[in-house]
Amino acid sequence: MADDAYQQEREDLAAAFRWTARHGMHEGIANHFSLAVSEDGSKFLLNPYGVHFSRMKASDLMLMDASAEPDPDDDRVDPTAFAIHGALHRNVPQARCILHLHPKYGTVLASLADSAIPPIDQNSMRFYERVAIDDGYDGMGLGEEAERLSRTLGNKSVLMMGNHGVMTVADTVARAFDEMVYLERACETVVTAYMTGKELRVAPHAVAAKTAQQWADYPGFSDKHFQALKGILDAEEPEYRQ
Asked: Which residue did the predictor score with more confidence, 154 or 101?
C-alpha cells in the first residue's frame, strides 16, 4: 500500500496507466500522467521515470511539489514530465488530472498543418469547440515550452500538441481518461476519413454544438466507464492497487 493519504487517487491513476497500455496508446516508459492532491493543485502525483505503463502500481507514483524543484539526483523524475505537469498544475486550476500521450491517431492529426477535429461523427462532435491547438512546438517541453503549453490550453479540456502529441485534462482521473479514449477514437475516425480522399460529411454548427452538449450532459458516463475498467483490473491485475 502507498505510505500517504492518497491511496484512492493513486489507485485511479495506476488503473489509467494500465488501461492506456491495454489500449495500445502508450510508449512503454515514455509519456506521463499527473493528479493534483492539494486544494491549490501544487502537490501532485506523477509517474516515475522507468516504470512501464502496463506495470504501474499505486505505490509507484511520486508525490511532487509544483512550487519546488525536484532533487536533481533523483533519477525517478523525468525532467520533461515535471516541467510540463508542474507548469500546468501551477497555472491551470481546472487541470486536476493531466494525461499526456503520443497515441497513434492523435499524433498523426497533431502532425498535420490543420490539426482540428472536424465534426464528422458522434465521437468527433464530442470535442466540438472544446479543443485548443498548439502550433508553437519548440522542443521537448522544458522551461518556457512548458509554460507556453499551459497558456495555450487555457480553459479547454483537450490540447492538440502540434508536432508532439495530445493532452486531456479534467477534475478527476475517470473524466480525463474517458476524454483520452474518445479523443483517440475521434482522431482515428478523422484520419481514416482523410485517407479515403473523399469529401467529408461535416455536421453543421447547430448539430455539432448540440451533440457536444449532449455528451457533456450524459449522466455519469465517464465514472461508469472507469468503474467498469477498474472492475476488469480487479479481476485480472489486482496488484495495480498495491
From this structure: 101
- CA separation for the pair 7, 5 (Å, rounded): 6
What does the domain layout of the chain look like in residue ranges?
7-235
| β partners of residue 22 | none
Opening angle at CA 177, ends 175 and 180, nearest 5 = 110
Q: Give me the amino acid identity at 41.
A: G
The pLDDT value recorded for residue 141 is: 66
Q: Which helix (H) or strand (E) holds 159?
A: strand 158-161
CA dist list (Å): 236 to 16, 20, 240: 15, 15, 10
CATH code, residues 7-235: 3.40.225.10
pLDDT of residue 2: 43
Query: What is the average pLDDT across 200-211?
Result: 98
